[in-house]
Each structure stands twice: as C-alpha cells, then as structure tokens.
Amino acid sequence: MMTFLYVVLAIIVLIVLLALIAPKTYNVSRSITVNKPVSEVFNYLKFIKNQDEWSPWKKKDPNMKQEHIGTDGQVGFVAKWEGNKEVGTGEQEITGITENKSVNSQLRFYKPWKSQSDAYLTVKELDANSTKVVWGFSGVNKPPSNIFFLFFNMDKTVGKDFEEGLADLKRILESK
Given this model, what pLDDT does residue 176 score? Predict the structure, then answer.
C-alpha cells in the first residue's frame, strides 16, 4: 500500500513540476506583403466572411456548418462553425476595429478541446501600393493543460497554416 502511495505522490509531483516549467502563454504570427494599397487590403480583411476564400481551415472542411450573427465588418459580429475533427467547433467574434490598422477578434474553441485565443490581423502601409499584413493569435495556457505544449510546437504547426492562408490572401487580393 505504501508503494502505491509513493507512486501516486511521485506522479502528482511530476505533474506539478511539468506545469510549472511548461509555457504559460503563446503568440503565433506570420506576415506577408500584399501589393495593394492599405485601404483596399484593410477593407477586405475586416469582413470575417472573406476568410472563407483564404482560410486554410475552410479548405480542411469545405462542408463545415457556419452561422453568422450581427453585421460583418463591425464589432460584435460572430462567425460560428462546426466542422470535422481538423477544424472542430467554435466561434470568432470581432472585438475591435481600428480603421486601416487592425481587426481584433476573440476565438472560442469548443471542440476538440475548449480554449480561447485573441486573434489579430494588422496592416501597415509600406508605400502607396504595398501593405504588410500580420496574422496572428495569442493566449494563455492554463495549468495543467499547459503541459501539452511541452510536446506540441504551436508556432510550427499553426504557423504553417498562417503561411498558407496569407499566400492565398496575397494571391486573391493581387488578382483583383
């Protein structure tokens, strides 16, 4: 019986130690230059529904169920989705818009696991006909689930999706 208690205690101590050293926050972003004026790029990006044209997750489940609440391109707009195991279930709500600067939103995931992130799209004029776009998201890894991030590289995994999406965004905007 004592051996069992020592094993359980050792497991608990290990979990606590791992939770203490595991990453507590994350921030993943990628950028690209689009050869279009900042106002044109921003006016496209502020509409969440336009993400259906360039989002890598829409490609992973083109048949996902979607619902929209509110007026797209305005604070408070919510885009909900329910998809396959690759895209899960969740919603995105626009929380802030700064004209020709940024669109901020909150991502709430319900499946395959529950989490919340702050997403952002920022634009910066490089010259009259080129715009830097930054797409990213950040959040908090709560213990003990943060232990998972010792073994999962979110920057590498999600970063690839951001790069793919930004390349499609560039192609779409530059072809208009």
Answer: 82
